[in-house]
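Session log. Operator J.P. requested a structure for one protein chain; no other inputs attached. Running the standard single-chain path with token output.
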Amino acid sequence: MAAKVNETSRLDPVDRRIVRELQRDAALSHAALAERVGASAASVWRRVRALEKDGVLGKTVRLASAEALGRSVNVLCQVRMSQQTVEARAEFEAFIRDREEIVECYAMSGEWDYLLRIAVSDVADYDRFIMRGVLAHPSVANAASNFALRQVKYTTEIPV
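Structure written below.
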């Protein structure tokens, strides 16, 4: 269940500290988290469960190193659809979800319909992916690609 738009306005200071700390290190024990936020471990456990139930906190994951996994080339790809039907978009979005190279996808307003972040091993890998995947999709009119030279900032933390 997703949190309501104004959900954070109802979070008390302890809940806010819990969310901040867990965004930085989701592996903290309840005791360590309790110490950092100034509450008892039992109270922190109940609060974390309530934050999960309310959709404020999602699943717990570990961030992997793209470089260590041989996927250090980041490509931002803008996609324009040839068809704007509900069915065409649904088919394209299903295709997107099935491609492991696509690590982020946003439906956009403006000139382009989608923005993809694609993690590949090298330019040849991207060439194969874009030509045989994205551009081969029947609903895609065209795409424009930009290669990231270096990462200046990356965070998964949402301001609380």
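Operator note: The chain has two domains: 7-53, 73-147.
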